[in-house]
Each structure stands twice: as C-alpha cells, then as structure tokens.
Amino acid sequence: MVTHALDAVDLVKTYPAGRKKPPLRALDGLTFSVPEGIVLGLLGPNGAGKSTTVKILTTLSRADSGTARVAGHDVVREQDQVRHAIGFVPQKSSSDPMATGVENLVLSGRIYGLSRVNAVRRATELLERFGLTEFGDRQVKTYSGGMQRKLDVALGLVHRPQVLFLDEPTTGLDPEARADLWNEVGRLSGDEGLTVLLTTHYLEEADRLAGQLAIVDHGKIVAEGTPEALKAELRGDSVHVELVDPDLDGTVRALLSGLAGVGEIVVEGNALRARVDRGATAVPAVLGALEDKAIPVTAVTVSRPSLDDVYLQYTGRSFRAVEEEAA
Ligand SMILES: Nc1ncnc2c1ncn2[C@@H]1O[C@H](COP(=O)(O)OP(=O)(O)OP(=O)(O)O)[C@@H](O)[C@H]1O
Predict the structure, then answer these.
(1) In angstroms, what is the span from residue 159 Cα to ligand 1's centroid?
(2) N or C: which end of the chain has fewer CB within 10 A?
C-alpha cells in the first residue's frame, strides 16, 4: 500500500471580501495526495490558492471545511505532531541577517529542543550538506541570494522533518542559483527520501523538479500527474507564430482559426500560439496563409505540448497570459 505523506480532501476556505461583497472562495474543494518521498509541485498563477493550501497544511490557518493529514497527522486535531513532522521555508527568509549561518542554525535547533552540543553538530552537518561550511561564521547579510536561500532550506531541515514545504523557493534568484537550488531539492527527495511540497509560478521549475504536479486554478486542482504524463495526454503539437506587427494579431487569429486541424489559439503580445493536430502539415499551411495576406512574421516554430499547453487545456487560459495580467 502506498503511504501518503500529504492528504488533502475537499478543502474549502473563504475570506471576507469587504462590505456587501460575497466572501472570496480561495479554496473550493481542493483535493490531492502525495506519496512519501515525492516532490509535489503546486503550480498556479497569483491568487490560485497555493499559499492558502500551504497555510492550512502547515497549521497556520484552518479550512472552513474538508480534512487534511500531514505525515499521517490531522492538521486540526494533531497540530503539534504536524508541526514536528514538517519543515517550512517561507517565501520571505526567516534567518537573522545580523547573526552568522551557524548561529541561525544553532538557535533553530535549540528552539526545536536539541541540546547545545546536538544543535552545533546538526548545524555543522547542514552547512556541509549545503556547501556553506566556509561561510558558516559569516553574518548572513553578507551571503548571496542563493546562499541565503540554501540556509533557509537548511533551517527548515534542522529537526529532520518528514515533509518540507517550499513556498516559491527560487523567486528572485539568478538562473545559476536557481539551478543550484533545484539540484539540492532533487537530492533531498531522491537520496534522502524527503517529501517536498513546492509552490511555484515557474512552469520550468515545476517541469524540472516535480515528480508529481498539481495545477491549481480558482481554488481547485484542475489537473494532476507527472509533468510527462500531463504533456503526453495532449495530442498534437504546438505552433508558435511571432508577428512583426502586434496590431495584426486579430487578423492572424481569424486567418489561422480558418485552417483545418488548428485548435485553440492564444495571443500573447506579438506572439500567437495554436494547438494543431500535426505540426509537420500545419506549419506550411500557416506560413502559406500568412504569405497570401502579406503578413510579415519573425518566426514560426513547432514544438511538443508544454506545461503551458497543459494549463491552457485545463483552464481555458494561458498560464503566461494569466501571470502577466496579475503582474
Ligand atoms: N488573508 C486574506 N484575506 C482576504 N483574502 C485573502 C487572504 N489571503 C488570500 N486571500 C485571497 O485568496 C485567494 C487565494 O490566495 P493565495 O494567496 O492562496 O493564492 P496563491 O496561489 O498563493 O497566490 P500567490 O502566488 O500570489 O501567492 C486570492 O484571491 C487572495 O487575494
């Protein structure tokens, strides 16, 4: 039998939306489960309900209805057990910038009830684990963004939790530091068997890290599976057309939607994306139609469906477009 490290069943959470307005339904019957040792990527645009879900699972907030278990413990009735079983790395760093890496880790260990000797031992172990040993005695304010993030993750692991929550862990990191952290998270679940719940806005991050993916939209899980399985479920290809003149997007949309085998079309600035039955036959047809109307294009490319196409399929909206709207 598969043991689930996380189980959320029919979670509903509403927030007051102001006078005379109906309450805002942040979670609307959210259900998912995660087997032990897996990285679950909770992917969704701003306001989808990711942070609310994390708050409920980490006992920081209570659902209006529904149930959730973390490491086998009920998040309402067994809060203390849940808190000991989890590590939580919030979006905003919880380390003290004026203290050194070692001091931060030792303090955290002491808060979790470790003796001074054990807290120092654990701090040394974690600094080594994250390649921070030589920086352990430096104040955290002197760390790079990537080093601070690694220390944050180390702080979440001091008490050897079974489940680690990472709330948008790589936001604001440069590509190199992001790739470095991805490797660390991969090792945590792969070599050390930790279950990780990761929330992210980044499709690439979800694709790269998540063994299992849950796409959240309007407080519900709209699709669940491995990134590969979700992409494989979509038949056909994705054709991308980059226009020279963004004002012609309406004309191009009408033109393409008249072609056989061309499905949903999404416009993002001067780029159009269409799902097609077969890329090999659609590209010449698309280029021919554009040439007939003398519409200049910068590029036409064809690719296998991406997670953005998966998102579009299940929500009717492009993930990137939704993100831009919210920005
Ligand atoms: N304390 C609160 N009071 C009122 N509304 C809230 C509160 N917290 C969240 N919301 C609303 O609930 C919805 C879900 O928010 P939530 O923060 O869970 O989304 P999210 O997917 O984590 O978004 P983000 O990626 O921006 O963090 C949003 O519409 C948000 O405005």
Answers:
(1) 29
(2) N
What are the backbone angles phi and psi of residue 283, rounded to the nearest 5°? -60, -50
Give SS3 for 318: coil
Q: What is the ipTM of this complex?
A: 0.96
Residues 110-157 pLDDT 10s: 999 999 999 999 999 999 999 999 999 999 999 999 999 999 999 999
Query: Regarding the domain delimited by 4-231, which CATH topology (the fold level of the hierarchy) does it fall under?
Result: Rossmann fold (3.40.50)
Question: CA end-to-end span of the chain, whole Å?
Answer: 43
Testing ligand 1's pocket by substitution, the residue of 21, 24, 197, 202 carrying the most ligand atoms inside 8 A of its CB is 24
Residue having the nearest C-alpha atom to atom 17 of ligand 1 = 51
Amino acid, single-letter form, for residue 24: L
Q: Interior CA angle at 43 toward 38 and 45, to 5°? A: 165
Strands 237-243 and 86-89: unpaired
Cα Rg of the chain, angstroms = 23
CATH superfamily assigned to domain 235-304: YebC, transcriptional regulation domain (3.30.70.980)
